[in-house]
Amino acid sequence: DQQVKQNSPSLSVQEGRISILNCDYTNSMFDYFLWYKKYPAEGPTFLISISSIKDKNEDGRFTVFLNKSAKHLSLHIVPSQPGDSAVYFCAASGKTSYDKVIFGPGTSLSVIP
Amino acid sequence: GAGVSQSPSNKVTEKGKDVELRCDPISGHTALYWYRQSLGQGLEFLIYFQGNSAPDKSGLPSDRFSAERTGGSVSTLTIQRTQQEDSAVYLCASSFQGTGAYSNQPQHFGDGTRLSIL
Q1: Of A34, A96, A103, the CB nearest to B101
Q2: Which residues of A6-30 are buried (b: 16+ CB within 10 A; e: fewer)?
């Protein structure tokens, strides 16, 4: 049973527009959430994270929103650029670094020039 | 500094053979993970080493899979009697292990080993 879900396998967005990637989780013990970006033939790279004590974290063009009551988080990319085209993985873990990290299945984002 | 290094980058072998995949984590990182990504699928957790504690092996798909981490650094993932369904990209990641609540640190991934079983 998937504990971290990304229900959209793919998403296409025009360059300059906002990309919104969604993630849902089922385990109420999750307290730390991350987004990773993966290009073909490379390992995933860390993008942005948020802990459950916050509902928003922003880093440049990337913002992550967390709604704990809905067990939902989203990644906003604005403005989207062609170089953002990649697979985006949502991940979650417990409160400490001793807790295992669980990944979602990923969403493939295509930013069209 | 050097990132997570995995070797080999590609491995092709015949069904039934054993394979060993190696991971060199970032120096000082005490947590090490192995994941598997099959074609068109997400990241499947395999095993997690955390410092000196017993590893979390809950993701290993069968007893043909095993992993070791010697000296708290290099890790080897071994697949015995390989099957065609073992074909996938095997990814290793490491992270610094802090202490206390909200001490989580993001993982750093290697580029993976692409394993093909003929």
Answers
A1: A96
A2: beeeebebeeeeebbbbbbbeeeeb
Q: Specify the amino acid at residue A112.
A: I
- Identify all chain A residues contacting B110, using CB atoms and an 8 Å cutoff: 43
String of b and e for B33-64 (b: at least 16 CB within 10 Å)?
bbbbbeeeebbbbbbbbbeeeebbeebbeeee
Read off the pLDDT of each residue in A75-81 and give the average, rounded to a whole number.
98
* Cβ(B62)–Cβ(B105) below 8 Å: no
B contact set with A (CB within 8 A): 4, 31, 33, 35, 41-43, 45, 48, 50, 53, 56, 91, 93, 95-112
Task: Print burial letters for A45-81: b (CB count within 10 Å at least 16), e (below 16).
Answer: ebbbbbeeeeeeeeeeebbbbbeeeebebbbbbeebe
Does the beta-carbon distance from A103 to B98 stay under 8 Å? no
Per-residue confidence in pLDDT tens, chain B, 118 aa: 579 999 999 999 999 999 999 999 999 888 899 999 998 788 999 999 988 888 999 999 999 999 999 887 899 999 999 999 999 999 999 988 766 656 678 899 999 999 999 9
